[in-house]
Amino acid sequence: MAQYFSLHPEQPQPRLIKQAAQIMRDGGLVAFPTDSAYALGGHTGDNPLLARIRRIRGVDERHHFTLLCRDLSDIATYARVDNSQYRLLKATTPGPYTFILEGTKELPRRLLHPKRKTIGLRIPDHPLVSALLAELGEPLLSSTLLLPGDEHPLTDPEEIRDRLEKEVDLVIEAGACRGEATTVIDLTGGSPELVREGMGSLAPFGL
């Protein structure tokens, strides 16, 4: 049965942040709010976690997972970023964008797209996620909490607990959560390519 934490949306309680981070370090799967929608997430190096998220989401190994990062230096550690890509990232983060980039050798191969060797990366603009990332000291593996058959990501923590009570280890509530997914931009080609339109404006990319 999933645990349930209620945290302050602007100043999340350090004690509960520490507990949530420890659950993740121990291999737990956590549902938590971001600046766009709820996400499923956990420790980057935990292989069984990938299988659990894929089963809940109903996706296969070609699904792009996302690393939630603290800042641009994190992104530069885990993805190959040239000068023009860096300028775009700097202009649009933190915010509701996910960027598809080529992964570096710092990432386990199992996290990368099997053919393209790419991964999604983003820097959320949400106090709870920022506090979790600071406590963990490393990126979070995540995926939007969009269940098979649903048109929109989940936003209500009570509903998430009801529907995923036996599938996740912790549900975090931290105030209202937008129900719109991030805008996904592929930066691996010669110019930015729109993969999914969401909350983030397309204007910075000329799309």
What's this entry about, in short?
With 207 residues, this protein is α/β, with parallel strands linked by helices. The protein has six helices and ten strands; from the N terminus they run E-H-E-E-H-E-H-H-E-E-H-E-H-E-E-E. It has one domain (3-205): Alpha-Beta Complex (DHBP synthase).
What does this structure look like?
The chain is an alpha/beta fold and 207 residues long. The protein has a single domain (3-205), classed as DHBP synthase, CATH 3.90.870. The protein is 28% helix and 22% strand. It is built from six helices and ten strands, in the order βαββαβααββαβαβββ. The chain has helices spanning 14-25, 47-57, 72-78, 83-92, 127-136, 157-164; strands spanning 3-6, 30-33, 38-43, 66-68, 97-102, 118-122, 140-144, 170-173, 183-186, 193-196. It has a ten-stranded mixed beta sheet, sandwiched between helices. A hairpin with a 6-residue loop joins β9 (183-186) and β10 (193-196). It is globular. The model has no long low-confidence stretch (mean pLDDT 92).
Key terms for this structure?
single chain; 207 residues; alpha/beta; DHBP synthase; ten-stranded mixed sheet; 6 helices; 22% strand
